[in-house]
Each structure stands twice: as C-alpha cells, then as structure tokens.
Design goal:
Layout: H1 3-12, H2 27-34, H3 38-51, H4 56-80, H5 109-131, E1 140-144, H6 164-173, E2 186-190, H7 191-212, H8 217-223, H9 236-239, H10 254-265, E3 268-269, H11 274-299, H12 327-344, E4 361-363, H13 365-370, E5 375-376, H14 377-382, E6 390-392, H15 398-406, H16 413-420
Antiparallel strand pairs: 1-2, 3-5, 4-6
Helix pairs in contact: 1-6, 1-16, 2-3, 2-4, 3-4, 4-5, 4-7, 5-7, 7-11, 8-10, 11-12, 12-15
C-alpha cells in the first residue's frame, strides 16, 4: 500500500466500524460479521444484545455491531436521497462511497436532521454497550474485513463491494468499484480496541450534536444541492447543471466551487438546542478519557498478533496505514490529549490571529460550548464572532503544537491522529 493510499485509508478510520470474530466468540458474533444479508445481520445483533448483560464477549461484539448499523443508518439515508460525495477531506463524514441512486427521493431539512438523529442515537447505544464491557475482559476476536460490511444501497444485502476492505480500497482510488481488488485486512481485536471504537463513537456524536444544536436550514436550502443534486432541494432547478457537467470532487467544477463558497458563507446558525452543544464538549472529553484508557491497555499487551493499533513494543508496519508506532509518538499523542483537555476545560485558552499574544486574551472553549451563541463560521475566522468568548489566561501556543507535531515524523500528525484517536 502506497503512503498516499495509507493516508486516505487512515482518514477513513474516522468512519470505520470495528469488526471482530474468533473461535472463542459467540456464534451470533460470527454470523454478525460474516452476514450476507441485513436480515441475518440484524437477527444476530439482537441475539448478542440480549446476551450482553451477562457475557462480555457478546457485549463487545454487540457494541461493534451497533457502530456498524450507525454507519449504515447514515449511508442508507444519504443513498435514499441521491447523495453525491464531494470527496473532500473537509467533509469527512461525507466521504462515504455511497453508490449512485438513479431515482432519489426528495429530501427536506427535517428529513436530513432525522438522519443525523438516527445516526447519533445509534452511536450512543454503541458507546453504552462498549462501556458495559469490564476493563479486564479477555477479548480476542479475529476478522477479515473483506467479510464484514454494511448495506450501502438499501437492497437488503451486504455485497463484496460493500465490505470494509472494499470501502477502504474505493477511498484510496477515489471512487467506489465493483471489482474484487480490495486489500487483505485481517486483524485481531482485543479489549484496547473496544476503547478505541467507543472513543470514535463519542467523537462522531460530538459532530452530530454540534450540527443538531443549531438551525442550519439556510445552509441546507442554499447549498445542499451540492450534495443532493436531484433531491428536489429549493435551488435545484436554478443552480444544478446537467449530470455531465457536475464534476466528481468538491473542486472539480465551477458549480461545485461556487456551492462550497455558498455553504461556508451560509454557516450562520442560530442555537436551538443549547444542551446539544454542551453535550458535544462532554463527548469530546469522554473521547480523550477513552483514548488514555486505550493506550494504557495497549502498552500492557505482551502479544503481537495482527494488531489494529500496535504499541511501541509490538513491532512491524501496520498493514492498513503502513506506519509503525514508537514510544515518541505515544508520548506526543498523550501530550496532545492533555492539550486538548486543557482547552476544552478552559484551563488553557485558544489563541486567535486577530488578538495579539501581548493582550493575554484567548478563546475559552469551555464557554464556547457551554454558553452557546449563534455560530458564524466566517466571522469566527475573521474575529468578531469569537469576541464573546475571549478572556485573560494562559494561552496554548504554536510552539506547544509544533513540539508535539515533530514527534510524528514523516507520517505527519494528522495521519497518526486519525489512526490513534
């Protein structure tokens, strides 16, 4: 796998649900992660959920299955309305390789919010199920990711080109493909990996709750035809060109560039559910806590058996990312977690280029989430919208981040961060 492919596939880790199976795992878990139909998969998941209170292995597999189905809720909701991915790293959740839908259903703002709510609530269920697994549970589940997948096109089946391995391969190629040229990706998932996936559930819940905390109808009405060009959105008849002129990526045609500019301009969102914006901060803090638990568990491991996320003591390049983890990367990541926690708790302040360091003023991110005001993206970048959150205190500095970033070497901080969680 080339380094470029490794970067793209590691970015997809944001969306990748954990899959696990082994000889010791419950029979229903094997069915869950090798099912060829949604009906068989859902039956197995129900069996695991019923057994979860008394069986850690069933709870672990059920938590993974619930994460699977959260992604499926999002993917099928997008497919139903003719979603076309902008293929941009700036919209990570919108990189899912959803197949074309020649007959999409119309989409309303309320329906899009409902898709986000369904996605977010299933993630919450997954996180709660993983939380029920005891810290000392002996978990060791092996899965070939070519056998586990989600139903992307709502036909009730889980086809080979809908497997996790195929989805990863399609992202590295820049588009979905029906061929069988997917990488062989077999991993043994252990207790540490449960913390990893639970942390990603919290991260994705934070994103969903931030959107849902606001009324983003103006953005939907004025720019979402970029994502759903045939779903009867308000400006479709005026601004959507013929299919051949649309371009495949967010910067591949004039109309996509124009709509992206519109989207950025229209992010001026009133707060309608302030408790969701407050919850977003709590989810991020929980993600940080879980990442620390994950690395504590990883560093205690004495084996080196097809590791999803290896520790420094588990030598060898990871087949997904092509990277090897050293102690310096782990230490730098733990420092990054501390910096993020300090910012979210208001112990350190986020600097802004419009406010000189000599003033001692910075953005209190705790207040940004807990005392929410309308979110204006452009005015946050240019300065006026951050004024209510400025206060005196200790600033996080670029030197702090540069010192952390240097420890990640040629792989780059972002690649490791997406992988590490």
């Amino acid at each position: 796998m080339t380094r470029l492919a490794g970067l793209l596939t590691s970015a997809f880790i944001l969306l990748l649900p954990l899959s696990s199976a082994s000889a010791a795992m419950p029979e229903a878990a094997t069915t869950l992660f090798e099912a060829k139909t949604v009906a068989a998969r859902d039956t197995a998941l129900s069996t695991l959920e019923a057994a979860a209170p008394k069986d850690p292995a069933s709870a672990y597999a059920a938590g993974a299955g619930e994460f699977f189905t959260a992604l499926e809720i999002l993917a099928t909701g997008l497919h139903r309305h003719g979603f076309e991915s902008p293929q941009s790293f700036m919209l990570p959740l919108m990189r899912l390789p959803v197949p074309d839908n020649p007959n999409p259903e119309p989409l309303t703002y309320e329906q899009f919010r409902a898709i986000l709510v369904g996605f977010r609530d299933r993630l919450e269920k997954s996180a709660a199920t993983f939380a029920s697994v005891p810290p000392d549970a002996d978990i060791g589940m092996v899965i070939d990711l070519t056998h586990a997948g989600i139903d992307l096109n709502e036909d009730g089946t889980i086809a080979p080109d809908e497997s996790m391995a195929a989805i990863i391969a399609s992202l590295s190629r820049g588009g979905i493909s029906s061929d069988a040229a997917a990488p062989t990706l077999t991993f043994r998932f252990d207790r540490a990996d449960g913390y990893w996936l639970q942390g990603y559930a919290e991260f994705l819940m934070a994103q969903a709750d931030f959107w849902l905390a606001h009324d983003f109808r103006s953005t939907f009405d004025g720019s979402f035809h970029m994502l759903f060009p045939r779903a009867k959105l308000p400006l479709q008849d005026i601004l959507v060109p013929p299919a051949g002129d649309m371009g495949s990526s967010i910067f591949s045609s004039e109309w996509r560039i124009a709509d992206f500019i519109s989207m950025v301009h229209l992010v001026n969102w009133p707060v309608i559910e302030p408790e969701r914006r407050q919850a977003a901060r709590r989810h991020l803090l929980e993600m940080i806590r879980l990442s620390r638990e994950d690395w504590k568990a990883i560093r205690a491991e004495t084996d080196n058996d097809r590791e999803w996320l290896p520790g420094p003591q588990q030598k060898g390049e990871n087949p997904l990312t092509g990277l090897e983890v050293g102690e310096e990367q782990v230490q730098a990541w733990l420092a990054a977690l501390t910096m993020a926690e300090d910012l979210l708790e208001g112990r350190k302040l986020l600097p802004h280029f419009r406010v000189t360091a000599s003033t001692g003023l910075g953005i209190n991110m705790k207040r940004f989430f807990d005392e929410p005001k309308n979110f204006d993206l452009v005015l946050s970048i240019t300065g006026p919208a951050i004024a209510p959150y400025l206060q005196s205190g200790e600033l996080a500095t670029s030197d702090d981040f540069d010192q952390i970033q240097r420890q990640f070497g040629g792989g780059g901080f972002l690649t490791f961060a997406l992988w590490f969680n």
